Amino acid sequence: MRKIGWISLGEECDKKLHELENCLFSIHELNAETLAKDLSEVSAVVIHHCLKENSTVIYDWLMDLTMTAHKPIWIITSLEEEYFQRLLLLKFGVVGIIDEKYPIKESLLMLENMLKHIEKVPQPTHNNEKQFIVAENSDIQLNAHNLSMKVNGLEEVEFTRIEYMIISELTKNQGMMLSYEEMVFHIWKEKYSEERRYRLANHVFHIRRKLKKRGANPNIIKTIRSKGYLLANS
């Protein structure tokens, strides 16, 4: 049985999960903390969107999902999305947007048929052992294929794609401070905003925590107060 990653946005959505028992898929609720690992175990992602306010949450999830792994994403919603909103969601990489009024099993059957076609397409193979790139004059090794790094030869640390983009950019400029404005532009291709600075700080927090769990020094990423971040020598 295929496993589907499930994200519920809104309390009403949580109530719908019990309807999926004994359906075509095994349902796995996705967690932002373990997103990279979770996505490696699922065939596709379904976002059940019930939030009438703060709808930007769905775009944050879509950004993390599309930057972390290439998985088909469907949205099931009870909201009447405007045309331009539906178009924007599709441009974010969403495969389809389904009205909740349709039976959930019918929607999942469409998803299963799509996955059957995808599975027939041969996938390229990779030799992960050859993917590590050693940063110049550094004990840091980056693996773009696995979205991971090693510090001082310790255990490999896996990141989400955005986290990897952050650590990669800092590694390229190791020993030099990158301003918040520079980081926001490199990661999101947007002008600086307080909201993006908050998102950046949140990602850095998770990077440090992952480094610490693997025995690496989380303080190699230094915060230059009110200015930006710097990756120190390990």
Automatic annotation (TrEMBL):
Keywords: DNA-binding, Transcription, Transcription regulation. PROSITE patterns: OMPR_PHOB. The keyword Transcription applies. GO terms for molecular function: DNA binding. Gene3D superfamilies: Winged helix-like DNA-binding domain superfamily/Winged helix DNA-binding domain (1.10.10.10). Coiled coil: none annotated. Residues 132-233 bind DNA. Residues 132-233 form the OmpR/PhoB-type domain. SMART domains: Trans_reg_C. InterPro entries: OmpR/PhoB-type_DNA-bd, Sig_transdc_resp-reg_C-effctor, WH-like_DNA-bd_sf. This is OmpR/PhoB-type domain-containing protein.
